[in-house]
């Protein structure tokens, strides 16, 4: 049986939160606002704008409320913010954002090391956070970070992910994403986990949040949509994310939104975003952030661009 | 139905031919020999060593016979050379190589522009070339370049590829590869073409030769092996290939062998090549050629390397 392709897929850009939170320099509010506003022009249906973490923990997101107040909201676009705990949710529900994102990291070792929490405590806090958002009437999506692989723990048991999904589902949640947070995940694991999760809970919606350290990001996207993922999350220019490694390359963060859009468009899967437009946005956002875009599409452009380039190229001998 | 994964797959490295032929500088014979010898140590089952084109057409392969004579042959490894025409085959059969590779480019526009040949003339020349090799007793594989997308013609009609495969099959050929020669191909097209070709001709073996301009190379590999591709061809460090574009990025050539091996190994598909070993080989080959490796795996290493790195990393906040 051939691969299964949906007729359309929802693309989410998380650069302004996941990219900025781990950006190597401080980014000023005006730049963040300009980044979100540029993304709003592309046709992207969901844009993650910021996160409501404690400013001491993530200094680059300290101006979350101000960013939310200053962006130009484009009708039809869902603007989202991360609320890592109930206190963050209390802040998030007071903004104009449409959707709030809860977060748990499925790795027990990571929770212990970074949050000094057990997984059970994490689940409990996430449900408390969800209750705050539920009361506010805003849309809710629950993120399961490191659902596949963790640099402290290695491969995450699929049963643990299914169990946590089940607990959240019992609490009333219906929309989730599973994150390949490191970008070291492989498509067989992605295929199996999405297949099992959607078999176990056919009434939930699961997206895929994808990083690209090993370069297999787009293969993982293919596996996820074949298995029924409802949405895919990247970051323009591939900014952000990714635990700092002693010997990393430039684009080890999130998978670049423009490369996801490009591939899906060429596959005839409706994204609502034009490839040339997202490539142009990536080039603009790279300038805004003072970085080189960590993607292929920002540099190479569309098939039409390559055909234009080939007209000027000398005789060559590819096989 | 989940993705189909074979239990093993054959990996071919073509850097010493496809990479060197379009290398931006002259490469001396000793470097080419060292490149092949380093690859021979990795466990790769098939290594493309050189090509027998006219030295005026591809100056960097002018020393083809000398390279063949000077490499250290490792028992069990298949050493291959490209013979683009019958004259090349006459040279190739006199060497110690085990396998010779015929080549046609499926794009009519490309044939016209670069070879001043019609497709029919190309098919005829390939069959003549095959006859020379057949008589010699060496193994034969037939390459169909640009079987999916061409920068002069755009998308290549699948019927044309099927028809050419059929003509070669009627002439007695049974082993082929289809090339995504530009790296602008998409996995749906790859899936459909491999599916149709193997349905139409169940007695042939088809590999996938893959470039990575749009970054979808590994997704295309996943689609090809799901559809039944028997082998996959990359180039160490991603060197070579790719029509020169006015605004290219570093790694627009062949898909890096080390990234292919890494992904397949993590999927539990037997490649016979160790990830750490191919990553080390990539770093050595980059030094040999004086380039930066155009891959993720050469820089990031294995999952074990990332776990080691994480131990030293500061507290981080990935999702």
Quick structural gist:
Helices cover 42% and strands 15% of the residues of chain A. The first copy, chain A, is α/β, with parallel strands linked by helices and 319 residues long. In chain A, β9, α9 and β10 form a beta-alpha-beta unit.
Task: Please render the helix and strand layout as text.
Two copies of one chain form a homodimer.
Chain A: E1 10-13, H1 15-21, H2 29-40, E2 46-51, H3 64-70, E3 78-82, H4 86-92, E4 99-105, H5 108-115, H6 119-136, E5 139-145, E6 149-150, E7 154-155, H7 158-170, E8 175-180, H8 187-200, E9 205-210, H9 217-226, E10 231-234, H10 257-266, H11 275-289, H12 297-300, H13 303-312
Parallel strand pairs in A: 1-2, 1-10, 2-3, 3-4, 4-5, 5-8, 8-9, 9-10
Antiparallel strand pairs in A: 6-7
Helix pairs in contact in A: 2-3, 2-11, 4-6, 7-8, 8-9, 10-11
Can you give a write-up of this model?
2 copies of one chain form a homodimer. Chain A is α/β, with parallel strands linked by helices and 319 residues long. Chain A has 13 helices and 10 strands. An 8-stranded parallel beta barrel of chain A has the order 1-2-3-4-5-8-9-10, surrounded by 10 helices. In chain A, β8, α8 and β9 (205-210) form a beta-alpha-beta unit. The two termini of chain A are 29 Å apart. Chains A and B meet through α8, α9, α10, α12 and α13 of A and α8, α9, α10, α12 and α13 of B.
Strand order of the largest sheet of chain A: 1-2-3-4-5-8-9-10
| Most extensive contact | A-B, 84 and 84 residues
Q: What form of chain A results from the Cα inertia axes?
A: globular
The largest pleated sheet of chain A is described as:
8 strands, parallel, barrel
Strand content of chain A: 15-25%
- This entry's quaternary arrangement is homodimer
CATH homologous superfamily classification of chain A: Aldolase class I
Report how far apart the termini of chain A are.
Answer: 29 Å
Low-confidence stretches of chain A: 242-251
